[in-house]
Sequence to fold (999 residues):
Amino acid sequence: MKAGKGSLELEKEVLNEGLCTSCGACVEICPYIKVVKDRVAVIEPCGLAEGKCYDFCPRTPTDIAALDRRIFGQERPDSSLGSYISIEMAQARDNKIRSRAQYGGVVSALMTYAMDLGEIGAAVLTRPFDGGLMPTSVVAEESSQVLGCATSNYIASATLAGMNKVIKQRRDAIGVVGLPCQILALRKMQVSEHENGAMGVKLVIGLFCTWALSYKEFYRFLRGRLDLSLIKRLDIPPPPANILVVDTETGTMEFPLEDMRGFIKPTCGICFDMTSEFADISVGMVEGMDDWNTLMIRTPEAERLIEKARQDGIIETRPLDEARLTHLREASLQKKRRAIDDLVKRTGDERNLLYLLLSEEERRKFL
Amino acid sequence: MSILAIDQPGRSVLMMGNEAIARGALEAGVDFSTAYPGTPSSEIIESLARVAEHFGFYAEWSTNEMVALEAAAAASLSGLRAIVAMKQNGVNVCSDFLLTVNLTGTKGGLVFVVGDDPSAISSSNEQDSRNFARFADLPLLEPATFQEAKDMTRWAFELSERVGLPCMIRSVTRLSHSRGNVKLAEIPQRSRSARFEGSYIAGVFVPIKHAELHQKLEQAREEFEGSEFNWYVGREGARFVIVTSGSGWLYSREAVAALGLDGEVGILKIGTTWPLPESFIVDHLRQATELLIVEEVDPFLEQNIKILLAEQAKTLGPIEVYGARSGHLPAFGDINQDKVARALADIRGLEYRARDEQYAQRASELALTLPPRMPTFCPGCPHRASLWAIKAALKLDGRDGFVAGDIGCYSLGVGPAGFWQLKTLHCMGAGIGLANGFGKLGQFAFDQPVVAVCGDSTFFHAAIPGLINARFNNSNVLMVVLDNGGTAMTGFQPHPGSGTDALGRPAPVVEIEEICKAIGVEVRVRDPFEVDRAIEDLYDMLQDGGVKVMVFRRKCFLIESREKAKPKVFVDPEKCIGDECGCARFCSRVFNCPGIIWDQDAEKAKIDEVVCTGCGVCATLCPQGAIVVEEG
Fold:
C-alpha cells in the first residue's frame, strides 16, 4: 500500500482534525515531525509530496480487509474480534509479576519469556509514571527491565517513536507491546512499500483498549488535586464501579469516571478496534476476575510461543466462559458501531468513513 | 602593544575612526572610560581597555548606556576626565540622565561619543542623535576626518571643563569603521586625583538651572566662532555654497571636484554643529544666493541654518536652500559622493554620469549569476538550535504562539536563519516588555502563548525590569535567555555573566538563573544542542501559564572554537542515503548551517570542513545518524 500523500496531508487530515492517536509511527523517521508528551506536530513542511508518515498513520485510509489478508492470510472469520486461533483466560504463574501487573501479568510474563528464550533481543514497551504522569516509550534490552513497564497507563504515548529509533539501529528480532492504534500502525509499516525496519518486529502483543485520555487535560485535572510525582498506579475497575482509582505513595484517591469523559482523546471515538485485532497476541482484562487476563492468540507463531510458555510453567490458562466471550464480542462490536456513527457524523456522508476503508458488505456485518 | 599607545608625537599612523577617538581621549589624559558595546561605537572603549592598564586609567563595559553615562559622570563630578561611548540607541537609553545632568552640569571633562548608524547597517533603527544635543542643550562636535576624530575628542574635554557641560561627539559608521592617517600628538602624564565636593542636584531651582544651561551653551557658541574645526574652502564670496558637516565634508569635496566646480562653489564645513557658530556662518554667506546642505540622516544642520537665515534675512537677503527638504538629498540612509554629485548636478543643470549607461543593466545581469545568500547565523551558532527548539515547541503546543524578539545576533531569527520565528523586533528589552502585555490579554480571549527571547547581555541591559513586571503583574510569559556567554554581536565583549572585565581580568559572575530565582519565577537551564530535551522542556513550560524562564546556555561557537580543538565532523556516505531518506535534505536545506552543503555529484550531504566549527549539533538531528563527530 502506498498512499501518495505526505506530511502536508497528514497535518491537514489527521493532526488538524484532532484525529492523531499519538502512536508515534510518524516520529523518528524524519526530522520534521516531533512528539512531546502525546502531542505530535509537523514542525516544518518537508516539501515532499509523498511520505512514510502518511503511509504509516493509523488514521489515514486503511483497507481493513486487505490488511487482514496480508497479516493473517484470510478474511476475518469473526467480524467483531478479527482473526484468532483461540481465546482463553490466562495468568502469569510468577506471583511477583502478578503483584506488579494490572491484572494477570500475562503481557509481562510473555515478553520476559520471549527475551529469555532469545526469540527477541529487545522489547519496545511503555513505562508508566516515569517521574510524572506521562508514560514513556522504553526499550527493554534485558528481561528484568520488562516488569518496570507493567500496569496500565490510560494515556496514549508515542510508543512507536521509541520503536522507530530502535529498528534503525538493531538487526535482531524485537517485540512490541502496544495499543490497538499502535498495532495497526505497526502492521501498516510492515506491509508498506516504503522501506522501514518494522519487519524486524517479530512479536506483537496488543492490549485491549476502549479509550485513552489526553495528557494535557488529564494532567490539568490531576495537577491541583495530588502530587503527580507520587502516582504509582491508575485503575478503572470493571463496571458498575464507574470510578478512576489513583494509587499514590501516600494513599488512594478515587474520581468519578464521568469527570474523565471530557479528557478522552477525540480520536478514540472513531477507533474501530478494541482488541488489537492485528496483533499476534491480544491481552485484556477479564470482567470480575482481577488476577486474570483475556488472552487471544491470533497467529501460529504466537500459538507456538504460548504453548511453550504453558509447558514451561510461565503462564497458566483456562477456557474463557461463553458468557464472557459473548460480552467481549458485544463490547467490541459496540465500539465499531460507535466509531462508524462518529465517522459518519464527521463526514456527513454515509459512505465516507475517513480512514476506515470498508466494503458495504463488511460494514453490514458490524451493524 | 596597541597602536593607540605609540608615543611618537608627529608620526602619522593609519587608524580606524574609533581608534582615533580613543587616541584623542588618551591625548587628553582620560581617567575614566565606559561604554555599552554597540555598532559602530564598540571599538572606542575596546581600544582604550587594551591600554588602560599601561596608562593607568579606568575602563569598563557597563551593563547599559545609562549606567555607563552615570558612571562616567561620577568621575567627572569628582574632577576627572571621562569618556562614554555608545551607539545611537544607547542615547535613548541614557536620555533620562542626560536631560538632568545637563542641568547640574559637570566638572572634569565629560565627553559623550555617539556612533550613529546611517542606513541601519547594524541596527534596529536609524536615528540622528544630533537632535539630542539640541534637545538637551549640549555642545555638539561632528568630526569629518580621522584627524578630526582625534583632535576634536581631545579638545572636547577642554571645552567640557570650560563650559561645565558634557560635550557630545557624533560619529557615523563610515567614519568610525574606516581608516585614515592620523598625526599623533603627545600623551600627557596624568596626575589628577578624584574628590567629590559640592552638590549636583537637578530637581531644585530647575528654571534657574535651565536658564544657566542656556548661558553655558551660549558660552560654547562663542568658543565655536573661532574653532579650528570650522572652515571655508573654494572661491571667496561664492554665490553657491555647500554647507556640510561630518562625513558630508569629504563627499562634498569629491563631488565638487568630479563636476569641475572648484572655481565656482564654496564649501563651508562646520565641525561644531550645535550651537551653530552663527557669526562665522553669516560671514561666509554674505554673497551666497544658493546653499546645498550636505549631512547624514536628518536635516539637522539644514533646519538650524534655515533658522539662522531667517533671523539674518535683512543682512543676507533671500537665499535658496537645497537639501533634504527640497528632495535633493535623502533624509534617510547614508549618503555618498555620488548622491551629493547628483544633487549638485541637478541644481546646477549639469550632466553627471558616474557610470556608463549600460552599467546598471550589466550589474543586474551579473547579480543574477550570484548564488542567493540570506543573512544567517555562523556555523556552530547555538541560536540556530535554540530557535528550532522554540519553533518546534510552539508548533507542538498548537495554539499559534509566537516570539517577541529582542536585540542581538538572534535578531536574525526574523528571517530564515531562525526559521522566521521572531514576530516583533524593536529595542533592547522590548521582547519581554511586549510579552508582558501580550501575556495579560487573556481577558480579551487571547490564548496564544508568548515567548520572549533575549540574549544574556540584553538580559542584564534591559530585560530584568520587564521580567519583574511580568512576575509582579502575574503575566503569562515564557522568557528564553539565549546565553552564549558574551555580547556576541558587537565582538564578544564581556558582561556581568561572563566572568571577566573589560581588561580581561577575572570578575565576579552574576548568574542569570539566580536573578530569576530571586524574582520568584521558575527557571531551567538547558543546552540547546540537546535539541529534543530543549523542545520538551519548552513545551512543558508553555503548558502551565505564569512566568517562566528558560536559559539556553551554550557558548558562542566562534569563541568556543578558538579555545579548544575542533572535532572532525563528516558525513558517513554509507549512512547518508540522500534523497532516498525522506529527510528532504534537512541538514543543508532547512537547518541550513553554512557548514553543511549538498554534494551535487554524490547526491548526499557533505560537511564543508573549512566552514564547519565542529559543534556537532547536526549529528543529533540527522535521522540516519549519518553525521559523525570525532573528537580531535
Q: What stands out?
A: The two ends of chain A are 27 Å apart (CA to CA). The first strand of chain A starts at residue 33 and ends at 36. The mean pLDDT of chain A is 93.
